[in-house]
Amino acid sequence: MKRSPDGLAPIVTLDRRLAKPLHRQLYDGLRDAILEGRLRPGQRLPATRTLARDLRVSRLPVVAAFEQLVDEGYVISRVGAGTFVSSAFPGHRGSRIGVGSSPAADASTTPRSHRRRLPRSPLATLDEPWLERWGPFRVGQPTVDAVDARAWGRLVAWHARRMPERLHAYGDPMGYRPLREALAHYLGTARSVRCDAEQIMITSGSQQGLTVTAHALLEPGDEVWCEEPGYRGARDALLLRGARPVPVPVADDGLDVTAGIARHPQARAAYVTPSHQYPLGVVMSAPCRLRLLDWARRRGAWVIEDDYDSEYRYDAQPIAALQALDADQRVVYVGTLSKVLFPALRLGYLVIPRDLVARFRRVRDAVDIFPPPLHQAALHDFIRNGHLTRHIRRMTAVYAERRRALVEAIRRELGESVRIVGDRAGLHLTLMLPPGADDRDVAVRAAGRGVSVTPLSSCYAGRRRQPGLVLGYAAAPREEIAAAVRELGSVIGA
Fold it and tell me: How far apart are CA 488 and CA 465, in angstroms?
């Protein structure tokens, strides 16, 4: 651009070969010059006729660009005086996040003083290469090719076409009422959970359920018993609330309540996985359950029961939920359909003590207002038509066979060098490695060979860490299990 009589530097160029309209090119150029400090607050811009002449374009795109800049507050127009860069706009030099910029580049060039203003995150930055690939033994991953896709797709399509207008509006923070009624019946039959639809909240998976629970029950600084070793996702949900997850050891019959009372007597809640402890797989005994509930009653504390994969039990009948023993309404029950159907469904649920429903409802409203209804409506029909029960029955047989193949391959390929625990239920088992073994190193090297195992040490919050590997077998085809175990064995023995 030629220098105009107003002294504006040649900072804007137009290219008629571009698909972008001329007025947009001019708007972008002037806006960027303002944001980057090349046009200073209060600086006068050329008249539209002058700028059009200098740029050799008609006045129309120049007027359109100026009007857009005025509307967005970058410049102000004074009748009889001209157009000026807004004095209220701070302006700055250097890079900025904007159109066409790279977030990574912007982060690297942001002044250090600006980066320091970010609040310190309570969550650690983790390097977990074993979770970066889809390989045999990925923990928490059910098989995704066994759901009756035809039935599910038909239900989703039917509801997408016929969803009533009321379901296109804002909905209930607790979720789709018919689905909650179906889940209340299912949980009462399958898990002995005592509840009705009024107590059930539909969530975006169990992780959101844990987050909502933490915000509804806890104050920043509250101590919460957490199983050691245990599920890091629960600890993260507590940390985001500002609570203090405190490790309590897991014994052969579940969480050591006596140790919890001795070490952290002022705890406000306890997080447990009683039906199939993650990651060790032990079942909390009835005496231990009663001790935990008695502690919660006397302390006025809460028990958060995560029942993440209890549908699958192979050598015995399913264990009733801890919530079924709760006569004092101290248990919040957390469930998910991610392990039952498929993770991308993102549907979980909470069973809330009746006198806490209003409080949980208010928290959920603040989080994301309400869960989307389409998949909820389809899932309601999936349950009502018997598809869910048939799917669980079919997958129990499939997973039992994969578990059997994995145990046999481990004993054949690894022999006495490892010990298997937690293989009677659920979708994973754990291999205990010899003392002194570096399970993280094994997991990293296994990931490099396409085998995804989780180091047991990553499940510990405290310093005492027993080496081991957590193997999920649900998504591993039976014919691939033996070869994957041999590959893992070569890594362990290296």
Answer: 21
Four-way CATH pick for 149-389: 3.40.640.10, 2.160.10.10, 3.30.360.10, 3.10.560.10: 3.40.640.10
For residue 425, the 8-state DSSP code is B
User: CA 356, CA 200: separation in Å to the nearest integer?
Assistant: 11
Q: How far is CA 96 from the centre of its chain?
A: 29
Q: What are phi and psi of 384, to 5 degrees?
A: -60, -35
Q: Which residue in the block uniquely carries the two structure tokens 């890079």?
A: 95
Chain centroid, CA 215 distance in Å: 16
Preceding omega of 279 cis (within 30 degrees of 0):
yes
Helices 374-384 and 177-190 pack at an angle, to 10 degrees, of 40
Superfamily the domain 129-140+394-492 falls into: Aspartate Aminotransferase, domain 1 (3.90.1150.10)
Strand order of the β-sheet with 82-85 is 44-45, 82-85, 75-78
123-127, 209-213, 403-407, 417-421: least confident range: 123-127
In whole angstroms, what is the distance from residue 367 CA to residue 212 CA?
8
446-478 pLDDT, tens digit per residue, is 999 999 999 999 999 987 778 999 999 999 999
Instruction: Give dist(CA 376, CA 337) in Å, integer.
Output: 11
Q: What is the pTM of this model?
A: 0.80
CA distance 197 to 432: 42
